[in-house]
Amino acid sequence: MPNDQPIGRRGLLRAGLAVGGLFAGTAAAGTAVHAQSVPSSSGTTTPEQRPATPDAAWARLREGNRRWVAGTSTHPHQDTARRAEVAQKQDPFAVVFSCIDSRVAPELVFDTGLGDVFVLRTAGQTIDPLVTGSAEYGPAELGTPLVVVLGHQRCGAVTAAAESLHDHKKLPGELSTIASSLRSSYNRSGGDVDKMIRIHTIDVVNQLKKDRLFTPRIAKGQLKVIGAYYSIDTGEVSRLA
After folding, report:
1. What is the three-class DSSP state of 99?
2. Which of 21, 59, 117, 144 has the fewest C-beta atoms lying within 10 Å of its C-beta?
3. What pLDDT score does 226 carry?
4. Helix axis angle, 129-137 relative to 193-209, nearest 10°?
5. Phi/psi of residue 230, each to 5°?
6. CB–CB of 99/105 below 8 Å?
7. Domain residue spans in the chain?
8. Which CATH architecture has domain 54-240?
9. CA 192 → CA 82, 140, 220, 228, distances in Å?
10. Which residues of the chain register pLDDT less than 70?
11. Residue pair 149/208 in contact by the 8 Å Cβ criterion
12. What is the pLDDT of residue 61?
């Protein structure tokens, strides 16, 4: 019996090491599986890639908008890790030019985060050379493949401009400049505000398409400039023809 005890202890030690190794291996495997299965902000298990084409960029925005409409926003790229990631360099995949309306925040509407989109906002998405220059930056300097001009339902700026033009009453301050820039769309809409919003949005799209920095990129398929319309009631963004 005395000779059996050392053997028993050695056996127990070997068994303990084997079991410990098994648990360690299982834990390591579990860690590896967990690391591979953590979804990215796009909802997939593969590393998220910046959309490289105009159509891919629009698809990414549409995907985010569908989440917004459904109430399942994931709020991607809104943490300290993303803040650190883009601290030294940015590479947005789209430019969104929208109204200043407080109910139309592009980052929320398209469920995006830090470093995802350039955002330009003016009343009624009215445009001038300064705004055009701002829109040029992404495509010209960083190769951003998509520009979206986003009009929206019940636009206060467009409504005020329509009323001003209908009543021949000048708006105060520089608001009159906004009304003047919307005169053409007002005339073609027959005074219908919603039609006016859509017409003006397409007018801005067509103006940007003629931009000297955009035209060669559009011709090569590297850039698209599109119009879209946001429904305040439903949260849905639809593309305008």
Report:
1. strand
2. 21
3. 98
4. 60
5. -105, 125
6. no
7. 1-38, 54-240
8. 3-Layer(aba) Sandwich (3.40)
9. 44, 36, 37, 18
10. 1-47
11. yes
12. 98
